[in-house]
Specification:
It contains 1 helix and 12 strands, in the order ββββββαββββββ. By secondary structure, it is mainly beta. The chain has one domain (5-14, 30-141): Cathepsin D, subunit A, domain 1, CATH 2.40.70.
Length: 142
C-alpha cells in the first residue's frame, strides 16, 4: 500500500524573450526522490512530466551509483524537437516519501548539463495516482 505524499511546485525565473531583460516566473512540479542501486543511493530532484514516455536522467547519476552505463539496453528517445538522443535503460529502485518502487531509468550522456531529470509514464506514473493542483501549486502522489 502506498503512502500519500504531497509536494509544492518550485518556482523558476525565466526570461520572457531571449533578448529581453524582463523575467517571469514559471512553477513546475519538481519532486525530491532517492535513487537506489545495490548498496548505493543518491538523493535527487526530477520533473513530473506527463508528456515523457520514460524516466530520463543524466549519465552522471549512473556513474555515481556504480552502474556500468553501456551494459543497459540501448534505446533512442526523442523530444518535442524531434532530435533523438541515445540512452541506456537500467532497472533499479526509487523512493518517493516512504514509497519504494522497482522501476527503470534511461541514463544518457547527451542530456545537457543544465537539463532537469524527468519522471515519465512508463516507470513512474504507472505506479502512482497523481493529482496536479496548479491553483495551490501542489502535486499529490498516492
Amino acid at each position: 500500500m502506498s503512502e500519500l505524499v504531497e509536494f509544492s511546485y518550485i518556482d523558476f525565473p525565466v526570461k520572457s524573450l531571449s533578448n529581453s531583460n524582463r523575467q517571469t516566473t514559471i512553477s513546475r512540479p519538481i519532486i525530491p526522490l532517492t535513487i537506489l542501486y545495490h548498496n548505493r543511493f543518491v538523493q535527487y530532484q526530477a520533473l513530473l512530466d506527463t508528456g515523457a514516455d520514460y524516466n530520463v536522467f543524466h549519465a552522471d547519476i549512473a556513474t555515481y551509483l556504480g552502474i556500468n552505463l553501456t551494459k543497459g539496453k540501448s534505446i533512442k528517445i526523442s523530444g518535442i524537437g524531434g532530435d533523438s538522443i541515445k540512452g541506456y535503460k537500467h532497472s533499479l529502485e526509487i523512493k518517493v516519501g516512504k514509497n519504494r518502487i522497482a522501476t527503470s531509468i534511461i541514463f544518457s550522456k547527451q542530456i545537457p548539463n543544465n537539463a532537469i531529470a524527468v519522471l515519465g509514464n512508463q516507470g513512474f506514473f504507472d505506479h502512482f495516482k497523481v493529482a496536479f493542483d496548479y491553483s495551490t501549486k501542489t502535486v499529490s502522489l498516492h
